Amino acid sequence: MQVDIRNRPSFANLHVQFEPGDKIIAEAGAMATMSANVEMKTRLNGGFFGALARRFLGNESIFINEFSAPSAGELVLTQPFPGDMVCTELRGNTLFLQPGAFIACDPGVRMSLGWAGVRSWIAGEGLFRLKLTGTGRLWFGAYGAIFDREISGEHIVDSGHLVAYEPSISINVGMAGGIFTSFFSGEGLITRVRGQGKIYMQSRSFDGLAAWTNAHLW
Amino acid sequence: MSSSRESFEGGVFHSSIPGGRSGARVSIARGELIADTIGEPNQRFSIPLTQCKLDLGGASGRMVFCRTDDGTLTIFCEDKNFAKELDFQSGGMLAQQLQSLKKGQRAESSRFGFWLAVSALACAILLFGGYYGVLAAAKVAMRAMPVSVDEKIGTMAFNSMEVGRKLEANHPASKLVQEIVDKLKPHAKIPDMKFKVSVVEGSEVNAFALPGGQIVVYTGLIKEAKSAEQIAGVLAHEMSHATLRHGIERVGQSLGVVAAIQLLVGDVGGLLALGAQVAQTSILTSYSRTAETEADLEGVRMLHAAKIDPQAMADFFEMLKQKMGDLPDAVAWISTHPQHETRVENIKNHQKTLPPAVYEPLQLDLKAAQDAL
Fold this sequence. Notes:
The structure holds two protein chains of two kinds.
Chain A: E1 2-6, E2 13-18, E3 23-27, E4 31-34, E5 39-44, H1 48-56, E6 63-68, E7 73-77, E8 85-97, E9 102-105, E10 109-115, H2 118-122, E11 128-141, E12 146-158, E13 162-165, E14 169-175, H3 179-184, E15 189-202, H4 206-215
Antiparallel strand pairs in A: 1-2, 2-7, 3-6, 3-9, 4-7, 5-6, 8-11, 8-13, 9-11, 10-11, 12-15, 13-15, 14-15
Chain B: E1 8-13, E2 21-29, E3 32-37, E4 44-48, E5 53-57, E6 63-67, E7 74-77, H1 82-89, H2 95-143, H3 147-160, H4 172-184, E8 196-200, E9 207-210, E10 214-218, H5 219-224, H6 228-243, H7 246-265, H8 270-285, H9 289-305, H10 311-324, H11 329-334, H12 340-353, H13 366-371
Parallel strand pairs in B: 8-10
Antiparallel strand pairs in B: 1-2, 1-7, 2-3, 3-4, 5-6, 6-7, 9-10
Helix pairs in contact in B: 2-7, 4-6, 6-9, 6-10, 7-8, 9-12, 10-12
């Protein structure tokens, strides 16, 4: 199965080329177009309560779709907002995703919802996070461009910009500077990530868009 | 040193792994920490326990990292039994390192708790102080506006209100009320305020004042009054709301609070516009307890100056109290209207502080006005 990310970075979409017997798991509603021979099976995203929890706490769909092709075919997957997508490969390791970022994965990747904690919530990253673990490729998207950093030690990210991180990274909330700087620099609270591992960030944040839109409504 | 009975789920960072990282089975054997990667290609990494540099952290705060001196190889594990096993297998060698890491983590955790509590408290103080600060500032700002603004707002509100049928100006009740207003007008705090009084059909014993001097009296109040002086008492109270500019003060405070909320949390949009619409008339006609008391006292001063016995105002409240009973204390405290009893007492006390005067009974035919209703 060959998967390409096309039209990067603004309107990225996943172009999947199936070979007979290939399978991919995707977020419900992500399919934009597919060959007539591609089969789509919808199932609950985990158990019933797990699926409900992922819907309301993890901002993901109750259902996920499993696409498979008995013969060669193609499939295009998209995300609801403009932005880039990336692919990363799990080798028995784990990646935490921001709610709403998940797009698709190989069948070997398991998805679950985990408590992210008060710090993550204050940092604007939500009380919950999706935990993806197993073996296989994983595709996720973000609002704006996606860039990653290999962290060793400490790094600072503005709140709302962190999209994914490894469990070996800890998240702390901090002020951008002193009280005056934090209030008037427009940066407010920042996220301090610490540890060893990779983080993925988005170049735009939904909060920023919402604030900008609101300011122009009147 | 023995080998560990079990292996733990963990991971490894090393540059020779594709992608630089992999999940791994972590075990301890023969004085070495060993990581076998999951998936292809199978690789084995190990660090002698004597060379382990430990760290504690990760997203859960429980992840134990073990690094080589040069930092090129890191084996990590989150299993809660891993730390114990590590300690046991190293013969206590790593115990001290682990202890001091945990201590540091606890200290950081309590620092976070402390700052969380301090921030919550600061937010509460800011909100509370900000609210009252805005109210006070709005009061000053609105007072600085010319009285003509009151008139405009009052007229607009009056025209948009559905008050009921107005009695004709030549109706005996309208004439009676107009004559009392004329008598009180010269003693008003704002001498050139244009008072416009309307008598409106309605059974409630009520009257209200809008900013700028629009006053509405319900026929129910005229029917219940025992003397023209009692009506004069109510009118003096309502005229005082207008001359003390209570209505415009409330508008200012409401706008100020809205503006402050916008400043604090950003734009809150349509919801507020809706709230403002709904609140428009209720804001203009309902006053705070302080405002009610102020209007009572100013009313007494006006009545006294117009040589009308302020006792009648107290009598009217006394009558209301007997007719409707007092509010239970708890409710009265929350409600905007002061207890009738307190009002009566305040009026009487205030009257005592004024210079003695000879009051002249009003030469008005209340009976005829009541009969015409």
